[in-house]
Design a protein that fits this description.
By secondary structure, the chain is α/β, with parallel strands linked by helices. It has two domains: about 5-145 and about 205-290, Rossmann fold, CATH 3.40.50; about 150-195. It contains ten helices and nine strands. The chain has helices at about 55-65, 95-110, 120-130, 150-165, 165-175, 180-195, 205-215, 230-240, 245-250, 270-290; strands at about 5, 10-20, 20-30, 40-45, 70-75, 110-120, 135-140, 220-225, 255-260. Strands 1-2-3-5-4-6-7-8-9 form a nine-stranded mixed β-sheet, sandwiched between helices. Strand 2 and strand 3 form a beta hairpin. Helix 1 crosses helix 10 (about 270-290) and helix 4 crosses helix 8 (about 230-240).
Length: about 290
């Protein structure tokens, strides 16, 4: 087993079985408080990517959590990164998440876990959590909630509307700019798509599973939404589709944190650090509330 130590933070290579395949992960823990840790974090990556994350996002997050006394596991799904098996998408990783939780418990002795997911990793965490009593909470970062209707409605509201409010747009329109004419044609298509299904029902199976998961999970939820991210706007559109779903996201125990300057993966250091700090503060409250 390979071990890396940076001050009190210790990282070690971990393998665990998932079905007939072997998965690979990295456990980060704090050598000074490891025996007192009661809760850990399993980082559920958005795909297709592996356990490091964009611009080493998950490495940074796991090490910061460990430094605060919260052990963390970042891992590769079967068929991704260094893990064996056939590649699968976020709708089919329940077994992988469950095996990762068991691995973190075995490696660190924690009784409870928080699932921290980005994009479709957040969606996977939401679909999984209610079925596993070991899950004490979920952090959902820019969850993936896309359908044709949601994408069209979001595009109309957050792209075309802003563009049509621009004086430059209308000056080009009066000059007969071909690019503007094309934009108007695209807008008409987007509006038709946005109006195609006004029922608010989920025609895509994973969206219904997300809704059911949110309704059934009774633990605390932290929803992190970036200000500069189309995926976050789509999640907001999905949550606004039904009054019942909107109510689920405003019930006690559910907190929405908005990182206004952040992009989808929190690629700038201030946004990344702010979300990490928020996560640690939220988990600290979760631990003390028990």
């Amino acid at each position: 087993m390979s071990t890396l130590r940076d001050g009190p933070v210790v990282e070690r290579f971990a393998t665990f079985e998932c079905g007939d395949d072997t998965c690979i992960g990295i456990v980060a823990s704090n050598a000074d408080v490891a025996s007192r840790a009661d809760i850990g974090v399993v980082i559920v990556v958005g795909g297709p990517q592996y356990r490091v994350g964009s611009h080493r996002q998950f490495v940074t997050l796991a090490r910061a959590l460990a430094a605060s006394g919260v052990p963390a596991l970042r891992f590769d799904y079967r068929g991704m990164g260094d893990s064996a098996g056939e590649c699968r998408n976020f709708e089919h990783v329940d077994t992988d998440i469950g095996a990762a939780i068991a691995s973190l418990q075995l490696e660190t002795g924690v009784a409870r876990v928080v699932l921290w997911g980005l994009c479709d990793g957040a969606s996977a965490a939401l679909m999984y959590a209610a079925a596993d009593p070991r899950v004490a909470g979920i952090v959902l970062s820019n969850p993936w909630a896309r359908s044709e209707q949601i994408a069209a409605a979001t595009q109309v509201r957050h792209y075309y509307f802003r563009r049509m409010m621009s004086g430059d747009f209308w000056r080009k329109m009066l000059r007969g700019d071909i690019g503007v004419r094309r934009s108007v044609h695209e807008l008409a298509g987007a509006v038709r798509g946005a109006l195609r299904d006004r029922s608010g029902t989920d025609s895509i199976h994973y969206l219904q599973r997300m809704h059911d998961g949110l309704a059934r999970f009774r633990g605390p939820v932290l929803c992190v939404l970036s200000g500069n991210d189309f995926t976050a706007r789509e999640f907001e559109a999905w949550s606004d589709q039904q009054p019942q779903r909107k109510a689920l996201l405003t019930r006690p125990g559910v907190e929405v944190y908005r990182s206004d300057a952040a992009d989808h993966t929190f690629s700038d250091a201030p946004s990344r650090d702010a979300v990490t700090t928020k996560t640690i503060e939220w988990i600290t409250r979760l631990r003390s509330a028990r």
